[in-house]
Amino acid sequence: MKIIRDPQALIGLLENGEFADAYRRELTETIAALNETAGPRGKASGHVTLKLDIKLENGMAQITPSLTSKRPKEGHGASLLWVTEDGELSTEHPRQHDMFPAGPRAVEPAEVRGA
């Protein structure tokens, strides 16, 4: 009688060996997505979860594997805006006065002097 005690051997037997290939692909693709997302920041997180549903009946075990994974979503940078008293968004702080409310002022050309 052949006894299976090694989890790696068990995974290799599931779905006639095809599940191990699916598991490897999922793990490889998740790591590649994490690596791409981390980029210059150097940080990203995710997971690959292997679940084995086991039903025991009349001395036989029926094992059904499943995989789930969480890969990072495409990141977007945050933007900061101010909220006015009326609940509107503004690029300027609502409680600070504009130093130049009329906009840029005209400047007279400088007089050029000869040497």
Characteristics:
4 strands, two-stranded antiparallel sheet, alpha+beta
Please give a quick description of this structure:
The chain is an alpha+beta fold and 115 residues long.
Notes on the protein architecture:
24% of the residues lie in helices and 23% in strands. It is an alpha+beta fold and 115 residues long. It has a domain of 64 residues. The strands form two sheets. Strands 1-2 form a two-stranded antiparallel sheet. A two-stranded antiparallel sheet has the order 3-4. Strand 3 and strand 4 form a beta hairpin. The longest helix has 21 residues. It is elongated, with a radius of gyration of 32 Å. The termini are far apart.
How is the topology of this model organized?
Elements: H1 7-13, H2 18-38, E1 47-57, E2 60-70, E3 82-83, E4 89-90
Antiparallel strand pairs: 1-2, 3-4
